[in-house]
Amino acid sequence: MFVFDVASGASRQVPLPDDCFGELGATPPQAIWTPDSRRAFFLCLAPDASRFELIRYDFASGRAETVFEEEADSFLDLNHSLYRSMGANVRVLVGGRQAITFSQRDGWGHLYLVDLEGGRDIRQLTRGEWVVHDIVAVDESEGGGFVYFTAGGREPGRNPYWRHVYRAPLEGDAEVELLTPEPADHAVTVAAPVLIGAASTFAPSGRYFVSNSSTLDSPPVSRLRRSDGSVVATLEEADAGGLFARGYEPPLPFSVKAADGETDLYGVVYRPKNFEEGRKYPVIEHIYGGPQTNVVPRSFASAAGVERVGGQGDFSTFTALGFAVVTIDARGTPWRSKAFHDVMWKKHDEFTLEDHVAALEQLGERFEWLDMERIGITGHSWGGYSSALAMLRYPDVYKVAVSSAGPYDYRYLYPPFVKWTGWPEYEDGGRFAPDAAARPANLTPHAALASKLEGKLLIVYGEHDENSLPASTVTFIDALIDANRDFDLLLLPNRDHFFTQEPYFIRRRWDYFVKHMLGAEPPADYSLPQP
Predict the structure, then answer these.
(1) Domain segments of the chain as ranges
(2) Which residue, among 332, 385, 392, has the nearest Cα to 497 in the 3D structure?
(3) Mean pLDDT across the stretch 336-346?
(4) Which letter does DSSP use for residue 391 in this model?
(5) How far apart are CA 264 and CA 283, in angstroms?
């Protein structure tokens, strides 16, 4: 990090710790400037996210000092969802003597008011078996003030993934207040570095905000509210009549138990179009499974595919072809307790696929129209990783897969993923491969399981994928060839990581499942319109 004097052009490097590291998505290290621009606070995570430091930097003296830090036995999050978050939940209050920080130190994601002069907690602002998602505003009114935030799981009997807006007082012993009581998912946004061009739905004065609420089967309603949650006006109610007229059916929400027989998991299932009682329908599971986000639709837009989830967002399209579609957020994903999120830590070789299998078994008992002998799976990016791994680890369950852009070998992952996977451990005790053939002793690549493949697998990757590097896919392909296993391959020239909206890819994925799960021949040269 460097500081530049605009007038003179002089520059100075900020003396941050050598291991000050930024998370994927450029959350930290980011600068929080004081109103007088004399100081800035930098957020530093250790590369393995085991330590967080808030560092105060004085521009006049050039001095940097740690004013608050926290350590964890596993990994720390400054906001427990990477892709669906609005940045780090750290706010320095006016004057620079106090800050609000996010922590899971009591087993749940909560907010704390901390003293930056002594580096200690002043008080815990939120508590309980529920989780804070995003700080959306801070009001430091004289004589009190509030922090406004979204959270889930606090209201009994509701989907724990539904977001509601709350506020907690910065002083005193008053309780947390629910500001959006409607039983639905409530979306608000805040201007943040990771949301380029996003505008806050909170007024600059903090006196008003706009919330957009919906459920899987009820379209969004936008309301203008006062800061105490009272409704000023209903701004708009979305009309989804045209969507329903074209035959769209919202998915059915469900709850099942994880493989441990105790933990509640949540998901949705889409019935095939033109559903007939007495028939059995093949199942396609859309999977992501990565530790940095969840993908089960919780709002109308995500269920209908308007908001793309897990790089795909077209869950319901397969229903027109005669498939039932299932998606599940298993253990190891965020937005639940710290223990729930930690399940996958340093055990990515398993990817909690046992939870997915357990969920499918329970769904087969609950819905007799699901054909448990014909189960396919598909996913992109981490979903590509986990869908291919499902074929290798559970060949008796999953029979067909389309896996796209998967990081099949941990040697090709970006460093920020170390917080979840752990450092590679080689036989010589080091973190770096002693030779080209060496594999980490603690991380099993797909290549090592290539001989387990039994079903039909289509691997898809972009030639210029800057995220899941092509070398990772080629390594997996090479192992499948060495194991004498049949597979199908689709290379997309000149594409990067994001090709899931391309008509050609969509059509080829449809064709693969139609051919190998329905036993039908897809129409030749079928062309989808360009988006």
Answers:
(1) 2-237, 251-517
(2) 385
(3) 94
(4) H
(5) 22
**Structure confidence at residue 196 (pLDDT):** 39
Question: Per-residue b/e over 416-431, b at no fewer than 16 CB within 10 Å?
Answer: bbbbbbbbbebeeeee
In CATH, which superfamily holds the domain spanning 2-237?
Answer: Dipeptidylpeptidase IV, N-terminal domain (2.140.10.30)
The residues, ordered by sequence, that sit 6+ positions from 531 with a Cβ below 8 Å of its Cβ are 501, 503
Q: Find out whether 379 and 286 touch, Cβ atoms under 8 Å.
A: yes
The topology (CATH level 3) of 251-517 is Rossmann fold (3.40.50)
Q: What's the mean pLDDT when you consider all of the chain?
A: 90
How many CB atoms sit inside 10 A of residue 444's CB?
17
Alpha-carbon distance 184 to 124, whole Å? 27
Return d(Cα 322, Cα 317) in angstroms, integer.
10
Residues ≥6 apart with Cβ < 8 Å to 450: 392, 476, 479, 480, 482, 483, 485
- pLDDT tens column, 251-268: 999 999 999 999 999 999
Query: How do residues 356-377 score in pLDDT, each as one tens digit?
Result: 999 999 999 999 999 999 999 9
**Cβ(298)–Cβ(162) below 8 Å:** yes
User: How far, in Å, CA of 465 to CA of 498, rounded?
Assistant: 8
Residue 220 phi/psi, 5-degree rounding, is -65, 145
